[in-house]
Task: inverse folding
């Protein structure tokens, strides 16, 4: 399982003196980008294809509080992937130094062409690297319909 360890910084703490909500998002993003870079999908290589990852949603579940002074380990597993790589779904778990699970997040996203600003397939060389990530027990092949699971649509003013 891919993991990344973090030290809770003063700026990661909120008024309640525990890890702030947005720090969880920061830690997950850093974990994902570290995996991509270590897999050869760094900014330079993504730029060659004009690709960028985009988040559709992140659903957090909090079980216990994290406080400064102890490390936080964030895991990354592949929960879903479309056949062409356009859509992906990740599972992140947050663990304390003893391996206790303090939080969990399900995240779904896709790949966009940064010039056209449209969803695109993942090139085969990247798809194979992406698909090599450890999968969850409930891994699934994603379709466009899976991205509409929560039926949320914009409502203009």
Result:
């Amino acid at each position: 399982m891919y993991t990344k360890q973090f030290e809770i910084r003063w700026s990661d703490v909120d008024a309640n003196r525990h890890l702030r909500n947005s720090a969880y998002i920061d830690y997950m993003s850093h974990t994902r980008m570290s995996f991509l870079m270590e897999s050869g999908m760094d900014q330079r290589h993504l730029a060659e294809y004009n690709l960028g990852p985009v988040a559709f949603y992140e659903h957090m579940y909090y079980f216990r509080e994290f406080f400064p002074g102890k490390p936080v380990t964030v895991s990354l597993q592949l929960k879903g992937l479309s056949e062409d790589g356009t859509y992906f779904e990740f599972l992140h778990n947050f663990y304390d130094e003893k391996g206790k699970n303090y939080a969990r997040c399900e995240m779904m996203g896709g790949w966009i062409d940064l010039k056209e600003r449209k969803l695109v397939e993942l090139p085969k060389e990247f798809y194979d690297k992406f698909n090599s990530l450890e999968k969850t027990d409930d891994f699934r092949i994603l379709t466009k319909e899976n991205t509409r699971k929560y039926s949320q649509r914009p409502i203009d003013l």
